[in-house]
Design goal:
The structure holds two protein chains of two kinds. Chain A is built from 18 helices and 18 strands. In chain A, the strands form five sheets. In chain A, strands 1-12-9-10-11 form a five-stranded mixed β-sheet. Chain A starts with 34 loop residues before the first helix and ends with a helix. Chain A is of the alpha/beta class. By secondary structure, chain B is α/β, with parallel strands linked by helices. Chain B has a domain of 157 residues: Alpha-Beta Barrel (Aconitase, domain 4). Helix content of chain B is 27%, strand content 16%. Chain B is built from nine helices and seven strands. In chain B, helix 1 runs antiparallel to helix 2, helix 4 crosses helix 5 and helix 8 packs across helix 9. The longest helix of chain B has 10 residues. The radius of gyration of chain B is 18 Å and the shape is globular. The two termini of chain B are 28 Å apart. Classes of the chains: A alpha/beta, B alpha/beta. Chains A and B meet through helix 3, helix 4, helix 5, helix 6 and helix 8 of A and helix 1, helix 2, helix 6 and helix 9 of B. Chain A: Pfam families: Aconitase. Chain A: It comes from Brassica napus (Rape). Chain A: Keywords: 4Fe-4S, Iron, Iron-sulfur, Lyase, Membrane, Metal-binding, Transmembrane, Transmembrane helix.
Chain lengths: 538, 245
């Protein structure tokens, strides 16, 4: 049971041991990338290793303990027991889509579930008479999604742009939602003033949480890789493509392979200058961009318990950057408080069994003493290209971007404002602020920042010389159409609170993106170089 | 006229029906089309038989033959299809073709040979050779779709990111295959190669270097691919009713 790969370094590098340890991936053999371990220098102070608890009873009559994820999937598949590797049909509680993937997903849904023969026949009749055209409408309108109240359509990616195709995609979604009587469609029609749109929300993952669609124990799928954000609520949440989404639209089910769970235990008091973004960058830097491929990343420990919901969302948000299938955090009072204030839909929280089997392929948990961690960044061009912020202080930057599902929530802006206020200085580079949702935007303008004598974020940002907070959307996190606000159109260096920094991510192929926490981003804006926030926070 | 009023109701559908000679909105070789769809003609480039588009009989052997395009590790979805092109809807035939023309356009300038030549719509490379974690990043299905739309038939990579792999299987746009060694280090862009898929014994043959590489069996994804994609698999499994006659 003890690991045979424990080296002299206190950090254990994983070797792909027996590939068929009862875990056959959706493809044949999982490849665990260990090059990340080998090429990084591991901070010896931080990580220690412990062998996982193994289930001691293996007799057939005793049920094997399951992890949270296994339990959620078992329940959704109406099974009493699942093990990693099982391919199961799972009932979906919520399906989310947005303006980029929605048209394609609905297109596939119609093609696959619509009655082609009937449509051809009716087209023929259609040419002949207008009355038959009405018949056609009636015939196709009989095609219904599986549940019009379990689908949430959230335009957020390419909204405030003059790109005609982008605008058309929102119109296409409006048509689908109207036809299918979709209950939750956060529509926008007036692009000139986001506030003139009462239904519009903004970034899908933040909107899902704020509107009460994230609930413990449920299965949430979305046509976006950062759907894993919702795992913060103790549910199974993962991103899927248009074809899978088209299937779910018609059936409310999806074929999933049960993933094994990697456990990350974070203990210790969170230092005042550290944020959840630093934690996840630390972890991704540890295990690499493929370190959690096909696996669940389960986060627990005293530090996790101390995090707010928004910080937990930031943590789970970047699980996909490590290749993870889903991220999950055990729900607690913090979770219930948040959820119950936003929805009255009942939910059933789920917890890992004490004798659940972890890390079927790896042989150790990952433990972190958070009190010893320092602010980090991910240097170009990979989310696992981790470096200490203070070791990058000679890197001159051209701009700072604070926004996205990862770093554009209310608390992210509060943190940046707090640092600006403590510093009392002006930014040295253009600093772009993109609130994730309408609600975040309103908070930025309405909520007083603690310790700032009643000033709001917006006031502090203005005094520091930042750009005016802009209309909420995904914005330039992923580049977008050419006229997207804050898009990287030149090969500049940008410190960003977003989630990816692969070449061309924010627009220009030679753009250099440093991923960072809101504190680090704010500190960097003040100096014009990548800067450790302790310069201003201690 | 009638077609245009049909179009306003469902733009993607009407385009497919109005021009039956264009490629169907989804070139998946596995989806069973009814007679109103015209299967895409076999590429004149390849000599050996490609996946039979009608998928009428079970596939025991599949062969892809053509030129290789070699990329490195961690080729993410933004490099495969930059986000600015995501306004194109893959289930719309014209936009599907346009997506193909932008395949791998996000690769840095260090890639001197472009996957699709400027001004062209299709690629001359049938087989993409990748390193580790191919397709990482976004869940955008546009990624495998654009590769297939451009004319790629298969990807042979050391490892895949899961959503990309899953989307490749679900759409049938490219065949995602695992190599056992770092083929990306041993093949060069422009090498002539053949990929032969057989029961439990698939290979990549590089005719230019003369080397042969074992490929891993497709594993759990096999039944889904063999059935013809997720919808066909579900129909076979009785999860959804069979398509109307």
């Amino acid at each position: 049971m003890a690991s045979s790969v424990i080296s002299s370094s206190p950090f254990v590098c994983k070797s792909p041991a027996k590939k068929d340890l009862g875990v056959s991936s959706f493809r044949k053999a999982s490849q665990i990338s260990i090059h990340g371990c080998q090429r990084k220098s591991i901070s010896r102070k931080i990580v220690s290793v412990m062998a996982p608890q193994r289930s001691s009873s293996t007799s057939g009559s005793v049920k094997t303990g399951m992890t949270m994820t296994e339990k959620i999937l078992a329940k959704a598949a109406e099974k009493s027991q699942v093990v990693p590797g099982d391919n199961i049909w799972v009932n979906v509680d919520v399906l989310m889509t947005h303006d980029v993937c929605g048209p394609g997903a609905f297109g596939i849904f119609k093609r696959e579930f619509g009655d082609n023969a009937k449509v051809v026949l009716n087209l023929a009749i259609n040419i002949l008479s207008l009355l038959a055209f009405s018949l056609f409408v009636i015939v196709t309108s009989t095609l219904k999604v599986w549940d019009s109240e379990k689908i949430v359509v959230i335009p957020d990616h390419y909204i405030f742009t003059s790109d005609k195709r982008a605008n058309r995609n929102v119109d296409i979604m409006r048509e689908h939602c109207r036809e299918q009587n979709i209950k939750y469609f956060y529509d926008i029609t007036d692009l000139g003033d986001f506030r003139a749109n009462p239904d519009y929300k903004g970034v899908c993952h933040v909107a899902l949480a704020q509107e009460g669609h994230c609930r413990p124990g449920e299965v949430l799928l979305g046509t976006d890789s950062h759907t894993c954000t919702a795992g913060a609520f103790g549910q199974f949440a993962t991103g899927i493509g248009n074809t899978d989404a088209g299937f779910v639209l018609g059936t409310g089910k999806i074929l999933l392979k049960v993933p094994p769970t990697m456990r990350f235990i974070l203990d210790g008091e969170m230092p005042s200058y550290l944020q959840a973004k630093d934690l996840i960058l630390q972890i991704i830097g540890e295990i690499s961009v493929a370190g959690a491929t096909y696996k669940t990343m389960e986060f627990s420990g005293t530090t996790i318990e101390s995090l707010t919901m928004e910080e937990r969302m930031t943590l789970c948000n970047m699980v996909v950057e490590a290749g993870g299938k889903n991220g999950v955090i055990p729900p607690d009072a913090t979770t219930f408080n948040y959820v119950e204030n936003r929805t009255s839909v009942p939910f059933q929280p789920v917890y890992s069994d004490a004798n659940a089997r972890y890390n079927h392929i790896f042989v150790a948990d990952y433990r972190f003493d958070v009190s010893k961690l320092e602010p980090v960044v991910a240097k170009p061009h990979s989310p696992d290209n981790r470096a200490l912020a203070r070791e990058c202080k000679d890197v001159k930057i051209d701009r700072v971007y604070i926004g996205s599902c990862t770093g554009g929530k209310t608390e992210d802006f509060m943190a940046a404002a707090k640092l600006f206020h403590a510093a009392g200085k002006q930014v040295k580079v253009p600093t772009f602020l993109v609130p994730a949702t309408q609600k975040v935007w309103m908070d930025v303008y309405a909520l007083p920042v603690p310790g700032a004598g009643g000033k709001t974020c917006a006031q502090i940002f203005e005094e520091a010389g930042c750009d005016t907070p802009t209309s909420p959307s995904c914005g330039a996190c992923l580049g977008g159409p050419a006229d997207t606000y804050a898009r990287l159109n030149e090969p500049q260096v940008c410190v960003s609170t977003t989630n990816r920094n692969f070449p061309g991510r924010m627009g220009h192929k030679e753009g250099q993106i440093y991923l960072a926490s809101p504190y680090t981003a704010a500190a960097s804006a003040l100096t014009g170089h990548v800067t450790d926030p302790r310069e201003f926070l201690q | 006229m009638a077609a245009s009023s049909l179009q306003s109701l469902n733009p993607t559908f009407s385009q497919t029906l109005a021009s039956p000679n264009t490629s169907p909105s989804f070139r998946s070789p596995f989806l069973r089309f009814n007679s109103s769809f015209t299967p895409k003609p076999l590429s004149t480039r390849s000599s050996s038989s490609l996946i039979a588009r009608s998928a009428a009989e079970p596939q025991e052997r599949k062969t892809f033959h053509g030129l290789c395009y070699v990329v490195g590790d961690n080729i993410d979805t933004d490099q495969i299809i930059p986000a600015e092109f995501l306004t194109l809807v893959p289930s719309n035939p014209d936009e599907y073709e346009k997506l193909g023309s932008y395949a791998l356009i996000g690769l840095p300038a260090s890639y001197k040979d472009r996957f699709v030549q400027p001004g062209e719509m299709k690629t001359k490379y049938s087989i993409i050779i990748g390193g580790e974690n191919f397709g990482c990043g976004s869940s955008r299905e546009h990624a495998p779709v654009c590769l297939g739309a451009a004319g790629a038939k298969a990807v042979v990579a050391q490892s895949y990111a899961r959503i990309f792999f899953r989307n490749s299987v679900a759409t049938g746009e490219v065949y995602p295959l695992d190599s056992e060694v770092r083929v990306c280090d041993e093949c060069k862009t422009g090498d002539v190669a053949t990929v032969e898929l057989r029961e439990g014994d698939s290979v990549l043959i590089n005719h230019t270097t003369g080397k042969e590489y074992k490929l891993k069996p497709i594993g759990d994804a096999g039944p889904v691919i063999d059935a013809g994609g997720i919808f066909a698999y579900a129909r076979k499994a009785g999860m959804i009713p069979s398509a109307a006659a």
